[in-house]
Amino acid sequence: MWPALFWISVAFVFYAYFGYPLALFVLGKFRRHTDVPRSADYRPSVCVFISAFNEEKVLRRKIENSLSLDYPRNKLKIIVASDGSSDATVAIARDYDDLGVTLHNFSARRGKSATINSVMKHVREEVVVFTDANAIFAADALKKMVAQFCDPRIGCVVGKLRYVDRHTSGVGKGEGIYWRYESKISRMESALQKVLVANGSIFAIRRRLFRQLHPEVANDFQLPVDIASQGYGVVYEPQAEAIERTTIFWQEEFQRKLRIVLRGITGFSVLADRFKGFRLWQFASHKLLRWSVAPFLLLALATNGVLAARSWFFAGAAVLQAAFYLAAFNGWRLRKAKKPHRFFYVPFYFTMVNLAATVAIVKFAVGRRQAVWEKAESARFSPIHTPAEPFSAVASPDLEDELHRPASSAVRVSKN
Known about the structure:
This protein is an alpha/beta fold.
């Protein structure tokens, strides 16, 4: 019995992290490619939709980044939707009225999806690009995403988010590795035109395919599901780049992952009837099984401990598992190190993420839901870049000081 339990747990973990990507790779090899030629003159009207809640630290930079994008200005509309902001967010957005930035201000906070529902009634542009206030786009990001819509079969395009770890924290390094792993999976899903979920920092949809969002479901979760259920493809465009700062503190990243999983499970429970066939298999493999890994990791560790005395193989496996979790503990202990070592921060991040997913599942089981999104405070700072080097990692003042600096002391960038 013990060997069977050990191998079942190992197989579960292996499939969750490696089996699903391998299956996508094989399926992609059998797909017949019928790409539609892209036109260099294809320039539909575009709305950049910036969701904002207390974003005074980043909004000015985000608006100016949006205004500077390489896209015909007469075909570009920029909307800032403030969901009950209580800081200077609204005032900053109003500074750009004369440059065509439209503000939708809601006095009471209702949640991102409810705010999007209200504002989308007024959007008439052909393509809507959803983004967050702390995500900075590459100059050609819109062009790269929009080009995909030359193909009438495509309904949603997901851009590439690259995290910038400004303080070389173990949490930031771990998130960067995790996101590169997810990007590779998105590429394989995209080969089948079946990217599962979007990235809320940079993704675009055909406006006519928009459906009202459930208030408890994240827009980057529901919109790809809705568009796929209408028979349109969802693809990943790695050349459409945005950058965002990683979180610094492990407590923030833990809570962020917890919120993502809780809202993901909630989204699946609400939209379960739209997951059928291939897409149901995708969600079970890519999300549900991944979120459920922690109990199987514990089962593998426990059964391995029982079996360690039976053979050199199980004894060696037990030593490797023990070393991994000791490294995770050491990664937690050294989480504030200036130069964290991958040998420690990868196990630490892996363990933390799986613990957060387990807590989220428990919260969902006892009826907890989350309609509003709480951004990690240390991520509310735009990465510094210049027009010539849009993604350069230029040094900045110490973030610890920046985090605690009063909002009134923030530098206000000129519109001229």
